[in-house]
Design brief:
Layout: E1 7-9, H1 14-24, E2 26-30, H2 35-51, H3 60-66, E3 70-73, H4 76-79, H5 83-87, H6 90-100, E4 104-114, H7 131-136, E5 144-150, E6 162-163, E7 183-184, E8 192-196, E9 201-202, E10 213-222, H8 231-234, H9 237-240, H10 245-250, E11 256-257, E12 264-266, E13 286-287, E14 297-298
Length: 300
């Protein structure tokens, strides 16, 4: 295993951190969320996590990708209401809104609990969810930005995420990674690995006998693309209606604007803005992160 990824804290500033993500394809930000929030999320997920079975039985490829000793589940705000604070994290929207310059929403918020005996997950690029992007390689636009949030400590022994810095810039996206180019995101609970959807990465092998490594993958995708998680089903409106406006938008309860910052054109109902037809309707309006606005901000 190679050297460690670059480490920052939020005090290092937005510009320095985002420049490093753009250059390396992935960096670690320690103390990304407070210890108190880590504990809330861990406690709120504990019962569901304990009852959830590892592995998945659909296709051979998906079984190997998901991990036979890994628990994966979504709908996290419904299971851990404190997770809404992560979705609404201001730094995330500074980063993502600045890169995309267009509407975006959550791709998935997914608990990934890597159990003892897990093998290395094969290295992959999350942009592969949309094959046309994969075929474009390094020249493709940035369509997905991700966070792997450590809810327990990530160690070399319990399966800390493996990352190949610089792989987002490779000319040949089908080339394999040399072992010495693979680094591991060793980080304490509360830290976050920020990375591009173009970057090669994968869960590490858990070589412990009893340590289940709990991480949450939270990723955001351009609003023009179909997300991985069917969020309005996993977080129904009766739960989402009481969340902050930006979180509602991230969960798919706003229509998507593209070429005109004032005109929703995707994810409509009766060719009209979705949010205005919900019952009960949101109490505030919200400006999207379209081409005219770097960040989503509430109207005043």
């Amino acid at each position: 295993m190679g050297n460690q990824l670059k480490h920052f804290t939020l005090e290092d500033g937005h510009d320095r951190i985002i420049e490093a993500v753009a250059e390396d394809g992935g960096v670690i930000v320690e103390k990304f969320i407070a210890d108190s929030l880590v504990e809330k999320i861990r406690t709120q997920l504990a019962e569901y996590e304990k009852a959830f079975s590892p592995g998945i039985s659909e296709s051979y490829l998906k079984t190997m990708f998901a991990g036979t000793q890994t628990k994966r589940f979504t709908g996290l705000v419904a299971k851990a209401p404190a997770f809404a604070e992560v979705i609404d994290h201001h730094f995330l929207h500074e980063w993502i809104g600045g890169v995309f310059q267009n509407d975006y929403w959550i791709n998935t918020g997914q608990a990934m609990v890597v159990g003892p005996g897990s093998d290395d997950q094969f290295l992959h690029r999350d942009s592969g969810n949309w094959p046309i992007i994969y075929k474009m390689g390094a020249d493709a636009p940035e369509v997905m930005l991700s966070v792997m949030l450590a809810i327990s400590d990530f160690t070399a022994e319990n399966g800390a995420t493996r990352v190949v810095p610089g792989s987002h810039k490779w000319a040949d996206w089908f080339a394999g990674a040399a072992p010495e180019s693979v680094m591991q995101a060793v980080m304490p609970a509360g830290s976050a690995l920020l990375y591009s959807g173009k970057t090669l990465h994968g869960a590490g092998a858990n070589r412990t006998s009893d340590n289940w490594r709990l991480g949450i993958h939270l990723s955001f995708v351009l609003g023009q693309l179909t997300p991985e998680e069917a969020l309005p089903l996993t977080i129904p409106w009766e739960i989402a209606k009481d969340l902050p406006e930006r979180v509602k938008a991230m969960l798919g309860y706003y229509s998507i604007k593209t070429f005109d910052g004032d005109w929703p054109i995707l994810w409509l109902k009766d060719y009209r803005e979705l949010r205005d037809q919900l019952t009960p309707a949101p109490s505030e309006h919200f400006i999207s992160a379209g081409s005219h606005n770097r960040l989503r901000q509430p109207l005043r």
